Amino acid sequence: MTSNAKTKVESGTEHFPQVGVGVVVINKDEQVLLIRRGQEPNKGLWTIPGGRQEPGETLFETAHREILEETGVSISEPVLIDVVDLIRHDDQGMLIRHYTLVDYAAWFKDGTPLAGGDADLTRWVSVAAIADHVEWSETVRIVQEAAEKLSAID
User: How many Å apart are CA 68 and CA 14, to the nearest integer?
Assistant: First the structure.
């Protein structure tokens, strides 16, 4: 499906879209590992750990690297949950952000969460309370679907 909306992109800006990988990490107590973003975009907001895919890196490699960089923990093999588009324009209609977000779920394996990379804090939150901590409804949906999917395959 193509969009009828006209998108303006400033010359010389980043190439769009970019691929981002997010991972819903769940422990045996049905808690989700969240990070608080320490940098823009979305500085100060709680979300699932993740980041940009690097050239030459597989999606699974990105998932494991980002979890280790942002939280210091290890995870099971990721399971695909969904792919979401994040597209933002400024007030003049210029495209300022376009990510294709590939979201996975994984069981927590080992380690003590410690913020690093783009994260400035980590926190375990119950799946039931996720909407109280995360603002973006798509992330809330992804976390809920991830918890259902992991519990069904465990």
Answer: 26
